[in-house]
Amino acid sequence: MKVLIINGPNLNFLGKREPEIYGKKTLDIINNEVEIFGKTLEIELSFYQSNHEGFIIDKIQEVYTEIDYLIINPGALTHYGIGIRDAILSTNMKTIEVHLSNVYSREEFRHKSVISDICIGKITGFGSEGYKMALQYLSSLKK
């Protein structure tokens, strides 16, 4: 099984950006931990991060025939990234949405996601463990 994990805007600043909300781990540390976990589940992972919606769309369109599932933390694009939504729909990519913080305990504008309804599921509020939870679920589909 091949899975692409995409992280959107400002996630490259994890560890520096509001650690009381997002934790102290950098994105590199999280990706390393998730990759190790993925190997235990025999899942081949690739990672991508961009602060630009168009680059994320390009990545989805570039790899959609090469991967089985997408795990995405769209960051701020969660709330208005219609282009990402359209890319997921047009490629028919099976997707899980992940958020580090509990978006429902934060500002009201964070409660609305433009991609949740087209995803397999959404994991929110479990920090970097959310990526592993998504992988665990995907691993269960192999059985």
Task: Walk me through the structure.
- This protein is α/β, with parallel strands linked by helices.
- It has one domain: Rossmann fold (3-Layer(aba) Sandwich).
- The chain is built from five helices and five strands, in the order E-H-H-E-H-E-H-E-E-H.
- A five-stranded parallel sheet has the order 2-1-3-4-5, with helices on one face.
- Helix 3 runs parallel beside helix 4 (82-91).
- The N and C termini lie close together (12 Å).
Descriptive labels:
5-stranded parallel sheet; alpha/beta; 143 residues; Rossmann fold
CATH architecture: 3-Layer(aba) Sandwich
Terminus-to-terminus distance: 12 Å
The share of residues in helices is 25-40%
- Our count of domains comes out at 1
CATH class term: Alpha Beta
What is the H/E order?
EHHEHEHEEH
Shape: globular
Task: Output the CATH homologous superfamily.
Answer: Dehydroquinase, class II
Trace the largest sheet across and list its strands: 2-1-3-4-5
Structure annotation, total helices? 5
* CATH fold topology: Rossmann fold
Class inferred from helices and paired strands: alpha/beta
